[in-house]
Amino acid sequence: MHTPRTILVLGGARSGKSRHAQSLAEAMTPTGCFIATAQAWDAEMRDRIARHQADRDARWTTVEAPLALPEAMAAHGRADRVLLVDCLTLWLTNLLLGEADLTAAGDALVAAIADAPGPVVLVSNEVGFGIVPDNALARRFRDAQGSLNQRLARVCDATDLVVAGLPLRLSGEK
């Protein structure tokens, strides 16, 4: 059985995707670099971040990269350490609200994945299962997230979907 070097983990909110991604990452290398894209704008988000941090032990280094994700991957990637990026949904939100060039950002992310010297696990929300949003910004985000997820699924060695805490391998070896 071949372990994929790059894995995209998709799922809805509170689906268990982060837990699954961390489990995959911990099985890949003895140490990891957790690249966090969240920004703590309010108390609820600070609590979420603290809960995620509490789930990681001393083998993890944490790097915050709400915008400069490809650069953080390049700076912290090593052959003997997995990069766990959580999550691409927040990264894309940060870029969209900052009016960044989403195509160029996607190109840079794909290049960073290809250039990473060690394994990479990426977490992203699957946002296409719901209703069509009622406003233009939400529709633009939903479309951009769907396009990014499709693009990453094509370049990653494996893609998992997590629903109700249960992972399903969609592509790549099991």
Short description:
This protein is an alpha/beta fold and 174 residues long.
Characterization of the model:
The chain has 174 residues and is of the alpha/beta class. The protein has helices spanning 17-28, 43-54, 69-76, 88-97, 102-115, 136-155; strands spanning 6-11, 31-36, 60-64, 81-86, 120-125, 158-163, 166-171. Strands 3-2-4-5-1-6-7 form a seven-stranded mixed beta sheet, with helices on both faces. The model has no long low-confidence stretch (mean pLDDT 93).
Q: Order of strands side by side in the largest beta sheet?
A: 3-2-4-5-1-6-7
Give the % helix.
40-55%
Unreliable stretches covering 5 or more consecutive residues:
none
| Main beta-sheet annotation | 7 strands, mixed
How far do the termini sit from each other? 7 Å
> Could you say which structural class the secondary elements and strand pairing correspond to?
alpha/beta
Question: Key features?
Answer:
about 170 residues; seven-stranded mixed β-sheet; 6 helices; 7 strands; globular
How is this fold's topology laid out?
Blueprint: E1 6-11, H1 17-28, E2 31-36, H2 43-54, E3 60-64, H3 69-76, E4 81-86, H4 88-97, H5 102-115, E5 120-125, H6 136-155, E6 158-163, E7 166-171
Parallel strand pairs: 1-5, 1-6, 2-3, 2-4, 4-5
Antiparallel strand pairs: 6-7
Helix pairs in contact: 3-5, 5-6
